[in-house]
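Take a look at the protein record below and flag anything odd:
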Amino acid sequence: MELFTGSGVALVTPFTEDLQVDYSKFEALIGFHLKHQTDALIVCGTTGEAPTISDDEKLKLFELAVKTVQGRVPIIAGTGSNDTRHVIEMSKKAQALGVDALLVVTPYYNKSSQAGLVAHFTAIADAVDIPIILYNVPSRTGINIEPSTVQVLAGHPNIAALKEASGNISQIVEMARIIPEGFRLYSGNDDHVVPLLSVGGHGVITVIGNVVPQMVHDMVAAYLQGDVKKAMALQLKLKPLNDALFTEVNPIPVKTAMNLMGFEVGPMRLPLVPMDPNKEERMVEVLKRFDLL
């Protein structure tokens, strides 16, 4: 299966009240997204609380997603870490379970030079036979993939795309300018989707798509079908919701919103804690304006 064009939702990981993974709720969420035209599903990304999900839990989630979707949309497994050997191990296991692609974040904490990034991602790409999406999110990892590094990595046959969440529009434009034809560029920020599409991007890996999947799908589809005015209108309409869902570190607000909406995705695992009541109150007002409550 080729990588997606459109809206790829970074799924939350539902927990029971005693903080066990709620696999039945996870399956129900997949059904919700298939109904609302989500174009790809990302399992165990940042929004899925990957740092506190065990390897066994991740593999069960990957397997369940593949079995539930049955090839209708791509399943993209988050296998990144700051240990190259561990990423390779998890990536091989995810591929064996039938996922369609991998989302691999830059190494965090120990970081690396740009040469180290090339070595890290190349080693992972050499170990698998499915597409890899590089994930650049310097605000979380403390390291940025420079455009020239992306250009080098794009030459590997298994490195097929970039999720770009630096928030640096100038960098995004430069990446779009120098990457080879066929390499896919996805927005990692929900408020930059149309700007990224305007320089040749292919879609978004979205957080707010957990709450309004149809709107995010429609925004990207409208732009790609030539209806720039509609896409722009949706981007602007979504801004207050996006702001409300990022008043605290993701995924605290989006999980809170989903629980308010009746999805029952449960609490977060530590070190994430419940949302500040004042911020939650403001988010409730926004959800009501969007007719989500």
User: Anything to note?
Assistant: The two ends are 37 Å apart (CA to CA). The first helix runs from residue 23 to 35. The CA atoms of residues 225 and 231 lie 10 Å apart. The domain at 6-227 is CATH 3.20.20.70 (TIM Barrel).
